[in-house]
């Protein structure tokens, strides 16, 4: 499995891949349907979605056209969630996380719910990602 460090784009609502790393604290998991794939490290959680019936907000100016945008949402241990600006994916990153179960680390947790994947940090910020809708809080 690839191992990654993600960094928030300066002053923007996007996250980009910065460099590979050999961290042992990386957990990959997938929604029971397989439509959502997530990676959780001590520094961030990112979930991408394969099929959705909603559109992300407009692409920020600092998200290059050569990358994907809005295919997922990322969250750090503190601060608000942001839409992903990256040329890769977290889909298929690990086994299914059954409904009612969670993964946690680095001050963040993700709960697998029938209504979607819900991730939050110790600040109370987070997101819900589902086929029908998304919510950033």
Largest sheet: 7 strands, mixed
Q: In total, how many beta strands?
A: 12
Helix content: under 10%
State the order of secondary-structure elements, H for helix, E for strand: EEEEEEEEEEEE
Total count of domains:
1
Which range does the strand content fall in?
over 45%
Oligomer: single chain
- Estimate the global geometry from the Cα principal axes: globular
Report the end-to-end length measured between terminal Cα atoms: 30 Å
The whole-number mean of residue pLDDT values reads 86
**Largest beta sheet: strand ordering:** 1-2-7-6-5-4-3
Please compute the radius of gyration using only Cα atoms.
13 Å
Give an overview of the whole structure:
- The protein is mainly beta and 137 residues long.
- The protein has one domain (4-136).
- It has no helices and twelve strands.
- It has strands at residues 4-8, 14-20, 27-30, 36-40, 45-49, 68-75, 82-86, 102-105, 108-113, 116-121, 126-129, 134-136.
- The strands form two sheets. Strands 1-2-7-6-5-4-3 form a seven-stranded mixed sheet, with no helix packed on it. A five-stranded antiparallel sheet has the order 8-9-10-11-12, with no helix packed on it.
- The termini are far apart.
- Mean pLDDT is 86; it is low at 1-23.
- Residues 1-24 form the signal peptide.
- This is Secreted protein.
- InterPro entries: DUF6636.
In brief, what are we looking at here?
Residues 1-24 form the signal peptide. This is Secreted protein. The chain has 137 residues and is mainly beta.
């Amino acid at each position: 499995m690839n191992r990654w460090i993600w960094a928030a784009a300066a002053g923007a609502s996007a996250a980009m891949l910065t460099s590979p790393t050999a961290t042992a604290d990386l957990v990959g998991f997938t929604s029971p349907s397989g439509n959502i794939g997530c990676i959780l490290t001590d520094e961030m959680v990112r979930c991408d979605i394969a099929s959705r019936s909603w559109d992300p907000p407009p692409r920020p100016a600092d998200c290059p056209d050569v990358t994907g945008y809005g295919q997922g949402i990322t969250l750090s241990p503190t601060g608000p969630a942001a839409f992903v600006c990256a040329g890769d994916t977290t889909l298929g990153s690990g086994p299914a996380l059954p409904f009612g179960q969670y993964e946690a680390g680095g001050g963040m947790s993700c709960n697998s719910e029938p209504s979607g994947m819900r991730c939050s940090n110790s600040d109370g910020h987070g997101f819900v990602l589902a086929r029908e809708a998304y919510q950033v809080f």
